[in-house]
Amino acid sequence: MRKDVRILLVGEPKVGKTSLIMSLVSEEFPDEVPLRAEEITIPADVTPERVPTHIVDYSEAEQSDEQLYQEISKANVICIVYSVNNKKSIEKVTSHWIPLINDRTDKDSRVPLILVGNKSDLVEHSSMETILPIMNQYSEIETCVECSAKNLKNISELFYYAQKAVLHPTGPLYCPEEKEMKPSCIKALTRIFKISDLDNDGVLNDNELNFFQRTCFNMPLAPQALEDVKNVVRRNMTDGVKDNGLTLKGFLFLHTLFIQRGRHETTWTVLRRFGYDDDLELTQEYLFPLLKIPPDCTTELNHNAYLFLQSVFDKHDKDRDCALSPDELKDLFKVFPYMPWGPDVNNTVCTNEQGWITYQGYLSQWTLTTYLDVQRCLEYLGYLGYSIIHEQESQAAAITVTRNKRIDLQKKQTQRSVFRCNVLGARGSGKSGFLQAFLGRNVTRQKKIRDDHKSYYAISTTYVYGQEKYLLLHEVLPVFEFLSEADLACDVVCLVYDISNPRSFEYCAKAYKKYFMDSKTPCMMIAAKSDLHEVRQHYSLSPLDFCRRHKLHPPQQFTCNSADAPSKDIYTKLTTMDEHVTLICCFSYVCVCLHSHVKFRCMCSCNRCTFCICQNLLNCELLRTVRAKFCSAVLNRHMTQTDLKNSTFWLRASVGATVFAVLGFAMYKALLKQR
């Protein structure tokens, strides 16, 4: 809503423009009236709408035409004053004033007009019979008021209607000629109805109506008031109420009735609560609330946001198959002005056998959007009405901004749940197949993907030591000389080469040496198409020797040419390679011997990573834990990244192993005696 209102009074000389202003201010008729009143400002706390109001007078005797034109351009509403006992002043309304104002204003944004019949105390008849045809002729005329500056009749009402014409204009809502709401208003109210229909059954039940009432007007409706509203609809239309709930047609009828009865402020209150401006467009402030994101931080959805998105999914999954069919997806996005997801989304996230986005895929796409383009995510949540349904100040409340990655490393822990892996490799090396295999698609299913529906992203969940994480894979185009900062900024890097192509590995080796050898970003070599015959690579070092020299993991064999869905083990390894994910578990978990219930705490002499003594050194078959793979993986990583010739390390490890073995055996014997 506007922060202030500017009202301009125009009309023929001697019709009482200045008297109206002075009577409003002093609450009495002035004995002496100047040629023109000075501009006055009515404070917000005095006006009914709580908006500061500026009232400007015009005098032909004191002002030039140019000054009049300037005032017309600045005015939010113009009151054309005529004298009810002066026919000439009434004729001038249509012959002079309305054409003059329309010539000075844009046709698409005409300023609202109020016709003011002053000096009603001098006549016993009304001028309405003469004025009504004029009102019907000009749609920009909001209303007509007859008043008397001398008797103070309808003075306050005059300026209230003028203020109301600005703050709650009829023009954008209603077409008087057609006697129905305009299409843009119907479209906005339809979106509001769909958002308020929490169970998506096509009607607003009593609970939904009460929630709508509280949301818009801060107070619920009494049960009898609810019935009265529905009875009004029942009396006027047959399909306005269904199953004792209000249908969309009934909802639109009620607002049409409000507007026709001059209560369009009710409709405007609803529209503005749901983010609309005076042109019935969602405001930029509503769609894009302020969200500060410091450098080297990422954005994720928080728990409340996922709960909201889950409710939206459940609301539109009519057949309860945990997937959204094309019709269900279209219904979900009816509250959007455009279709936000293209066919590439179906190749970015998990789908069912029919190619429909599953529940997991649906949440994954939202997670991807939040991570890559948080402003677009805010926009989408705005269309869905997140801040309204969850009663938040804005949809920015749905976003968690993670802390700087450097702090995560210093603290040796992180709360991040989304990790990015950039996938590099020469053309034809199998990068796209690697992405699609993460979504459970083998070669047969991948061949069905159209080129124009291809996606360079893939995102899904992977469980890391019992915790669910999102792994985001991004295929980087193989332009070696022009890798941007975005191509290099990630948590882990995959270097993919085709074992059957002798020139494929060279790209990976050069990319690693140029961009990642001196960085702290973990890297993994992927030996793709491992179902084919491996050939010697035309590079000075074999892939295995290259990895040994640069202390990398050995190349990981990978193929998606299988009858079933490809294995996801390699993607779990990728996630555990990320230093932040490793550090989340390093110092907080223990291994448990299920036979004796003796706990052995994980430890490491370097204080940076960790290995599990009971799993790797004692080799006890009785010791099992969900962290076992973690311990083994970190030990392997420690071995590859530490100087393996350092005998001091092995000496410390051996001593530590011996001590813990003796202590463990002693505690085991003690527990047996207690039993």
TrEMBL record:
GO terms for biological process: mitochondrion organization. GO terms for molecular function: calcium ion binding; GTP binding; GTPase activity. InterPro entries: EF-hand-dom_pair, EF_Hand_1_Ca_BS, EF_hand_assoc_1, EF_hand_assoc_2, EF_hand_dom, Miro, Miro-EF-hand_domain, MIRO_dom. Coiled coil: none annotated. Its EC number is 3.6.5.-. It is a single-pass type IV membrane protein. One of its GO terms (cellular component) is mitochondrial outer membrane. It catalyses: GTP + H2O = GDP + phosphate + H(+); ATP + H2O = ADP + phosphate + H(+); UTP + H2O = UDP + phosphate + H(+). Residues 2-168, 416-580 form the Miro domain. Keywords: Calcium, GTP-binding, Hydrolase, Membrane, Metal-binding, Mitochondrion, Mitochondrion outer membrane, Nucleotide-binding, Repeat, Transmembrane, Transmembrane helix. Pfam families: EF_assoc_1 (PF08355), EF_assoc_2 (PF08356), Ras (PF00071). NCBIfam families: small_GTP. This is Mitochondrial Rho GTPase.
